[in-house]
């Protein structure tokens, strides 16, 4: 025991080789299948929007950090690119490039860096920017095109159409099933935002993140599970008005929101119990908006609402410290 040197260091004592850049690269990889599907179904302009979203977001963040915040050592970590890509996947192919650029500026400058940057923003930047664009440019954001199923096509070659959820609200469930089927809904051959339509490819990307240990399944499971439960109850009451549970899961932005937006590490709860409450709340609010709201989709607003409640959820779901009595 002679000459034993004890090294005393400050916490944390458990370290990992992971970095923000590695995590963000994994997220970009997970979103690649949906981006490829968007390019196939909606043409090359979908790829233009996706690329523009990623590049412009990184350049805007670089400007903010290097010029405005005077951080000369800042190196892009990919988080801005993820925000830009998610925003691009959440808009219609009818959206002009300059409208997307305005949304990227809002997401990075206002929603993210006005609150202090990565790790300090309250709301999901991509979702907040999507709602901002929806309010500011409703015509562009709610004009939908039929898929053209051609990598070389352009969105102007397609015809306008209604999304399945909009058709459900205006014309009923039977009309939805006349114009589409569950297989098209699963693979993305329907009108909608460019990256939200292919539920199967989004789920494949999600499985990749789970395998890599980047995402916990609690939020997606409780979110999608609550939507299934509520839709099943209302389906038994009035199938024609409320639509089937499968329709609600495969349509709109539910899969993209539940798998990639609600699971945002910064804006979701820390505890497992809190994540379950968060997912359940997202599901309930989503279905309330879909059934009784004027807008046929409720994913973005539900996640943003639950983002605002995350501090309260975390506060009341903290585990009891070992050896300490409950207050």
Automatic annotation (TrEMBL):
Membrane-spanning residues: 23-42, 97-115, 127-145, 186-210, 217-236, 242-262, 274-293
Highest taxon above the source species: Bacteria
Topology within the bilayer: Multi-pass membrane protein
Location relative to the cell: Cell inner membrane
Keywords: Cell inner membrane, Cell membrane, Electron transport, Flavoprotein, FMN, Membrane, Phosphoprotein, Translocase, Transmembrane, Transmembrane helix, Transport
One biological process term in Gene Ontology: electron transport chain
Record carries keyword Transport: yes
GO CC terms of this entry: plasma membrane
Matches recorded under PANTHER family: ELECTRON TRANSPORT COMPLEX PROTEIN RNFD (PTHR30578), ION-TRANSLOCATING OXIDOREDUCTASE COMPLEX SUBUNIT D (PTHR30578:SF0)
Function summary: Part of a membrane-bound complex that couples electron transfer with translocation of ions across the membrane.
Name this polypeptide is given: Ion-translocating oxidoreductase complex subunit D
Lineage: Bacteria, Thermotogati, Thermotogota, Thermotogae, Thermotogales
